[in-house]
């Protein structure tokens, strides 16, 4: 779209300068200013997105809530203690602290963590990785 706008501005500016003749030469300059404004705006927008990605920007609240909801629905999960979602490249990565019964054997706790990981990756689109930290449930 920006290519079309800058090309159109150049076409109009040059056409006005040529057709209207002497005294209309600045039309080309004004068209160049319009084109440079479009290029500058696109550059700022692209830079803004890149900076947000470099700063590990969190996704919107709806996605974070969806991850929390999916994890909470796994049998054996008593609570979600901490949840962080960050973007890296084209994917989101989840760090989650899941609370389960403190009496759960290690093997079962590990299995529950795997179920939470699978549920999140299988349900929420765009998730590249999930790190599950198991915690004993505290009332």
Short descriptors:
Alpha-Beta Plaits; 2 domains; 3 strands; 139 residues; alpha+beta
Question: What does this protein look like?
Answer:
This protein is α+β, with helices and mostly antiparallel strands. It has two domains: 2-54, no CATH class; 61-136, Alpha-Beta Plaits (2-Layer Sandwich). It has four helices and three strands, in the order αααββαβ.
Number of helices: 4
- CATH class placement of the largest domain: Alpha Beta
Shape: rod-shaped
Count of distinct strands: 3
The domain count comes to: 2
The low-confidence runs, each spanning 5 or more residues with pLDDT under 50, are none
Structural class: alpha+beta
- Proportion of β residues? 15-25%
The main sheet orders its strands as: 1-2-3
CATH topology of the largest domain: Alpha-Beta Plaits
Distance between the termini: 56 Å
Question: Under the CATH scheme, which architecture of the largest domain would be assigned?
Answer: 2-Layer Sandwich
Oligomer: single chain
The biggest sheet, with number of strands, parallel, antiparallel or mixed sense and barrel status, is: 3 strands, mixed
| Helix and strand pattern | HHHEEHE
Please bin the fraction of helical residues: 55-70%
CA gyration radius, whole angstroms: 27 Å
CATH evolutionary superfamily of the largest domain: Cation efflux protein, cytoplasmic domain
> What is the average of the pLDDT values?
90
